[in-house]
Give the backbone structure.
Amino acid sequence: MKKTISEHAERFSQTAESYDDRNSEEYEACAGLVIQRAAPAASDTVLDLGTGTGAIALALADDADRVVGRDISDGMLAQAREKAADRGVDDVAFGYGEFRDPEYDGETQVVTTNFALHHLSDAEKRAAIRTIADLDGGGTPSRTDTVGPRRIVIGDVMFFGEPNPDEPFYDPSVDDPATVGTLVDALTDAGYAVTQADRVHDQVGVLTAERVVTGGRES
């Protein structure tokens, strides 16, 4: 990570009020795909990490039983809570949480994140994905264990081509994107199979991964 967690938190808190007005077409495309790929069941709890102003969390609230949003920025969380109140959404809970310490110990069947993981180094991303994989995913008819959400959806800056592009989509001073291969390897090592890779831009995409259980992908 090129900045500390507190530095990132302060940076986003300073821009929280105008954040939704500054998003790029690629960001919006990723957000739409993350929402589409998450596809929670009516009984699911969704954990949205790096929730920001709550765009993903609020969009999934109608489809899931419950949504939990976690972020490191007080300013972003304040915006998310305000939006939830304005829309009358009461099945979404926003609070402080980090990728490697979400501060959430309940069940979660689906984990989402959009344009946040790239702030971590590759080693930190791997640790974050392992943390997600170790969350309580609850029980299902296809397994007896309760470890691991059944689906992880990552929308982010990621390299489909050269890892050091001449015209970076991101800010090299604060961001540290991974190659798609690095993220796929981390998900695979954590017990997931990447079932969809959506390429929005050479440096932006969405990965959907499903938990693998004995006998194949979980149903």
About this structure: The beta strands are 45-49, 66-71, 92-96, 110-114, 151-159, 178-179, 192-201, 204-213, 216-217. The first helix runs from residue 5 to 15.
